[in-house]
What we know:
The complex is a heterodimer.
Chain A: E1 2-5, E2 11-14, H1 18-44, H2 48-52, H3 54-65, H4 77-105, H5 116-129, H6 132-143, H7 147-171, H8 175-183, H9 188-219, H10 230-239, H11 243-273
Antiparallel strand pairs in A: 1-2
Chain B: H1 19-39, H2 44-60, H3 70-101, H4 109-124, H5 127-138, H6 142-166, H7 170-178, H8 183-217, H9 226-234, H10 238-266
Amino acid sequence: MAVKFLTDDTKKWQRHDLKTSLMIWSGWLAGLVLFVLCWQIISEATTWFFVFDAPRIAEDIFTRAMPPRWEYINELWEPLWDTFNIATIGTGIAILFGVPMAFLTANNTTPSRYIIRPLCMVFIVASRSINSLIWALLTVAILGPGVLAGVVAISLRSIGFFAKLIYEAIEEIDTTPVEAIKATGASPLQVMVYAVWPQVKAIFVGVAVFRWDVNIRHSTVLGLVGAGGIGLQLSSSLNTLAWPQVSLIILAILLTVIFSEAISARIRAHIMNK
Amino acid sequence: MTDTVQLKRWRRPPMIKRTWLRALVWVGVPLYVALSLGSMEVNWARVIDGLPRAKEFILSFSSPDFTSRWNDIYEGIYESLVMAFASTVVGILISVPIGLGAARNLAPTPVYLVCRGIIALSRALQEIIVAILMVAIFGFGPFAGFLTLAFATIGFFAKLLAERIEDVSKSQSEAIRATGASWSQWVLYGIHPQVFPRFIGLSMYRLDINFRESAVLGIVGAGGIGATLNTAFDRYEFDTAAAIILIIIALVLMAEYTSSWLRVKVQ
């Protein structure tokens, strides 16, 4: 806490001393300047006429989209089932690869600190930095359009997520049980199963359920680039300007997302209470 | 007379305690996997066709092509960064009042409900879908992307900020209150110092997320590097795609290191 001496020799309390205040204010100023610059760039790339016209366009689209074409729902069940499968199977595959990778990466369980750990790290970083929609661009180019491309895209994105969160959990475990199990003459595999795994089990379930929920969200739009699921219907309805179908699809996606979030929240709350 | 000694082997406790649920999982999971894989139509001929391309893609990381599309890449990345920064700033500016309103210990119930409603709406709508609507309404370009990301920031930031505010230590904030502070002084001196480190951490984290997201918005026409990346994949120009992906990874890593450095500094 800083104190400021006034001219009449009284002291006044201040939150920061002069140096910190200057640093804070220059930080804010730099941020402000940067923001103004960014805003200018966006503004130059924008046709402002369209923006001012936006309320009218929005109203126009809304009146076209309402009411949703309810009977179209019958064509949506199959894509919705595909969407659910892309997320669930994709999460499953990601678990199958991500968990062993976490054990290979964590400092205290990795078999080789100088070769395997860095290799896994590179893969984890690449997997996490790239959005599943970009992975889908790739898998569609390689595997062709369809559900398979979606499953592979979702798992490519999720492996890094699982591996990162679980290896961090493994690195933070209590070493006493590990040493106790080791002292019985257990093999490295037995140490993992009986000493390490029980300690990270709860985190694993939480992470898996959370990622499944995120993946449901992502798999609803993968179809936009051809990777299966309800996004395909969304994309074709948008292309034909079938707004009543678009509104129904968005409604269906919204309900799916809320449903999956409710399930995931319930399971996570259950684990936390244990 | 012989005593029969029952030797019981120790078993690991099962992960799911309830027997019926365990049985359900053991039966249900394979059944589901069989059903879903059965309904999946895979064109194996196309997959086999694509395998050389997969090899080509992986190999292209050893020779990424930064030069031949450099202008497009540069503009795209630049636009992505600009969109990410501007939308984070605006998103946070809007989130702060909403976050204050969504904290149960600060806001009266009607305000609380309205703010929570806004947060729920923003979280339920997916970025890409918002972007499609924004592009339809505001036209192609970074402005639509900027609005999308700012909207998505609100749900994330206001929610986490409100949760942090609800967790503040009562003794400090009540001490400020006891001095006769007004509501704004109470927030500024009783709440703000406790929340600020988290605030900085969350802002950096959101900036990072917004940059990653901005890389895909281009696919639906909302500006940024996504459009270039999409074109590169469409034309099977894997070496250009590899270059873009490497740049994205480098920037994300940079953002992650900066944010962890800054968080340590603030705390």
